[in-house]
Amino acid sequence: MEKPLDRCLDEVFNTPGVTGVLCADAQGLCLSSKGTAHPRAAGVITSLMKQAAQLEPTADNLPVLRLESESCNILIQGKSEITLAVYKTPE
Amino acid sequence: MTFTGTEVPEQTGYLIINEDGGVVSSGGDLENDEHAASVIMNMLNLIEKSTMSPTENKEPFKRLSIQYDDHLYIVMVSNKKIHVVKRNYVPAEPVEA
């Protein structure tokens, strides 16, 4: 059942610069993770997205979050029930 | 020196929050925006306690951006204070060959 999701995440994971991908459901459970993204991060990523949605509750779309450190950028986007995090090396 | 909130291009508002979540200084769209301060504090607390860093990497995050379609918030911590800048987001035009 999860094959289409896995295929989609594989496609993202194989993009140059991407080191990890994680997909979580609305309860913060990890649906799939690849590379440097650890499944235990699923809960925090979902909570972070829920907090961010409260910043501007009237906005049409959820924001994209970008967390930057010296060696890694994490991009997080939520869409309905799913939250996706992409781990990248800085450009 | 006081931050007047005019240093960042396309800036529309700013917030400076102390460690306890209190607004120290604010201006523009974010003037006295306690709600934004509280949401951002909650996010930073989550990040601080998180296990989100890649498995082999435990270094701290230096910047958080919250990006909407036409504007974004940039959050950084400096000197035990949280600096938040809200600015318009103008995507670069694609270069035609």
UniProtKB/TrEMBL annotation, chain A:
Coiled coil: none annotated. InterPro entries: LAMTOR5. The keyword Cell cycle does not apply. It holds the Pfam family LAMTOR5. It is found in: Cytoplasm; Lysosome. The keyword Cytoplasm applies. Keywords: Cytoplasm, Lysosome. Belongs to the LAMTOR5 family. PANTHER family: RAGULATOR COMPLEX PROTEIN LAMTOR5. This is Late endosomal/lysosomal adaptor and MAPK and MTOR activator 5. It comes from Limulus polyphemus. The lineage of its organism: Eukaryota, Metazoa, Ecdysozoa, Arthropoda, Chelicerata.
From TrEMBL, chain B:
Keywords: Lysosome. Transmembrane segments: none annotated. It is found in: Lysosome. Its main location: other. Belongs to the LAMTOR4 family. This is Late endosomal/lysosomal adaptor and MAPK and MTOR activator 4. The gene is LOC106463106.
